[in-house]
Amino acid sequence: xxAKSTNKLTNQPIRVLYSGSSLSNEALPKLQENFAVHxxxxxxxxxxxxxxxxxxxxxxxxxIEVENKDKTFDLIGKxxxxxxxxxxxxxxxxxxxxxxxxxxxxxxxxxxxxSSPIPVDDLCERIGFLVKFKLIKPQLSDLSKIDVRxxxxxxxxxxxxxxSGCALLLISPILLIVxxxxxxxxxxxxxxxxxxxxxGYHIFDFYKFRSMRNNASNELAGxxxxxxxDKTEAGKSTFMKLKNDPRVTKFGSFIRKxxxxxxxxxxxxxxxxxxxxGNRPLPLYEAEQxxxxxxxxxxxxxxxxxxxxxxxxRGREDMSERERKKLDNFYAQNYSLWLDxxxxxxxxxxxxxxxxx
Length: 357
Prior knowledge:
By secondary structure, this protein is of the alpha/beta class. The protein folds into two domains: 6-137, Rossmann fold, CATH 3.40.50.2300; 154-350, no CATH class. The protein is built from 13 helices and twelve strands. It has helices at residues 24-34, 43-52, 69-81, 99-107, 120-132, 154-185, 250-257, 265-271, 284-287, 293-296, 308-312, 321-334, 337-350, and strands at residues 6-7, 12-13, 15-19, 36-40, 61-65, 89-94, 112-115, 191-197, 203-209, 275-277, 282-283, 304-306. Strands 4-3-5-6-7 form a five-stranded parallel sheet. Helix 1 (24-34) links the parallel strand 3 (15-19) and strand 4. The chain is elongated. It starts with 5 loop residues before the first strand and ends in a 7-residue tail after the last helix.
């Protein structure tokens, strides 16, 4: 049996995602002989398949039969705008030669276009050539180097500095009192620092008042049954939020209920680690699980002290992790000054938690 062509960057068989059925009998046998081919019947199914893949198993090449021109180029347009997918090689197959289709392909910077009868040997050779000389997909360690970076708008950064600075001055007596009570109640640092992943996978020190006994992080592994989020098919949830956490101190329970433990994050906002409104920065163990294209989008928007998740579904018994991910993605793609104002207005009623999470 002939060995399949490999991607020299990964030493793995070249992965081809094939979409369509009209030309499959003509092109597929040879493609499957040379490459690792996954077949989807339609453009819609192709788009859904790409959403579900992690960065480590994205295809190297997408071969699409142009059965519906509008849907095909709509997908291509979305791929070209997605920083995680824009480097994929895209090859189109057409039942007949059409000059208008070729112009569209050139406008969308498609790598190649073949018309029936498909020269399959030439197609296979072309795929090998394109993969050899083109960096296809980012590795997880290179995510912070993605060329499309979030740049905070001037109005948003200016508002963050003024609002967080004024708030810190006004509440400084409260901060000192809370710090003193925490120090008296239990041993350990007053401020709890943890590594969080924010915009563009930027890692920074995230500040909170300590609400648990010292070294509580070491006990987390044995408390997974208290997680409020639904389990995934693999039996492991991406997010961790514990109900009735036994590690919380008495005063810690009080400051968590009224979100007082979050106040030191105003220093993070003032420093520029995150914004007042955005997607919640995630602990490293959560962020490393969100590597599929569908969920990596949340990291391409602003990280924030409060956000759409906090004001819409926080602490709800029927909250699923998929719902939270969708809220994060929606904000990353649709945030605006008006949306930020609405979220801030809704934050104050949401500060008091009904659930002990």
